[in-house]
Design brief:
This protein is mostly beta strands. Helices cover about 0% and strands about 45% of the residues. The strands form 2 sheets. Strands 2, 4, 5, 6, 9, 10 and 11 form a 7-stranded mixed β-sheet that branches. Strands 1-3-8-7 form a 4-stranded antiparallel β-sheet, with no helix packed on it. The model has no long low-confidence stretch (mean pLDDT about 95).
Length: about 120
């Protein structure tokens, strides 16, 4: 089972940027679809960005499209989430997730490995 450790969260003013990192253990990182999800207080977990095993296919919800970019470095067993133009509504706990089940998915229930989460707070 792969282990995921997120880093890079914090407090930022609206309009600012943060870069989240997710380091994965294991030798088969390149075989996992990866994703970032977030959960705000009182809300359901939602997908923020996902990419396939090679990193060549990505998708984003409209709420972050054009502002967030997901990428992966298979040599470093790491996936990143670059977040620009942050808004107060982006405030949430951000989770990194890996799927050993599917090649590409926006559904959280198709991801079977999760990190502990990192808090992102955007002040207005």
């Amino acid at each position: 089972q792969v282990q995921l450790v997120e880093s890079g969260g914090g407090l930022v003013q609206a309009g600012g940027s943060l870069r989240l990192s997710c380091a994965a253990s294991g030798r088969t990182f390149r075989s996992y679809a990866m994703g970032w999800f977030r959960q705000a207080p009182g809300k359901e977990r939602e997908f923020v960005a996902v990419l396939n095993r090679s990193g060549g296919l990505t998708t984003y919800p409209d709420s972050v499209k054009g502002r967030f970019t997901i990428s992966r470095d298979n040599a470093k067993n790491t996936v990143y989430l670059q977040m620009n133009g942050l808004k107060p509504e982006d405030t949430a706990v951000y989770y990194c997730a890996a799927s050993t089940i599917v090649a590409f998915s926006v559904k959280s229930n198709e991801y079977d490995c999760w990190g502990q989460g990192t808090q992102v707070t955007v002040s207005s």
